[in-house]
Design a protein that fits this description.
- The protein is of the alpha/beta class.
- It has two domains: 147 residues, Rossmann fold, CATH 3.40.50.1860; 108 residues, 3-Layer(aba) Sandwich (Rossmann fold).
- Strand 1, helix 1 and strand 2 form a beta-alpha-beta unit.
- Helix 4 crosses helix 10 and helix 8 crosses helix 9.
- The protein is globular.
- The mean pLDDT is 91.
Amino acid sequence: MKKIGVFDSGMGWLQTLKDLRAIHPEYDYVFVGDTKNNPYGEKTWKQIRDFTFSGLDYMFDCLDVGLVILACNTASAFAVRDWQAIHPDKKVLSVTIPGIEAMVGKKHDRIGVLVTEATMNSGVYPYLFCRLGGRQKTIVDVVAAPKIVWAIESGLKDTQERKKILQEYLNKFVEPIDSLVLGCTHYPIWINEVRELFSGDIIDPGQEAALAMISYFFRHPEIETTLSKQSSVSFYVTGDPDEFALPAQNLWWASIAVNVIDFWTKKS
């Protein structure tokens, strides 16, 4: 039997994994964080693609996964379509597509998207919004918000400081927006502060991906029936396990054991 893999570069996976387990608690999950190379949002296209492919190769070759959720919008923007074309038998789903499908469903006139620098430069959100049937008159306004990632990774707890950082980026939208997309899986960790500052609709692609898994499993019983169901979670990182464990435990509300791995030597 196989496990469900969740891949990300940093702490953003926490909320995505929580969302997955809230809706699909019976499955076994394996999380892999490329914390050594975090954050991906500041890397080049080639670096993002190479890091992502190496992580996915490791998960399928060494961790016995049957499906991987790519819980990183930046990695999804630069690597997921290439991976799916090269490895159609190794199923990888991104959080980005369900998020954009939710944008299309809103039918709003102006949608704001907070993302990393790399995701903004990729143009993936406005491009796929059009490809997936978004209204032509809808304006998709994309703003890069790199400070949020650094603040979350460093464990910033001061609510007022969090709100100050968020407001800085919300002020960058050219005109008032009807809905806000949290286009990096780090950002929903500050969902309470976001709700205090923005009263419109909020779209969390990670949460949308968890909901989309219901229909995905219905359409693909050949995958769902191969998945083990012991409600377990395992954690693997490429960087310092102690630097990962403490903030992860604060967000996860439980102690966790973290394993260190090396994508290139296939060692753990």
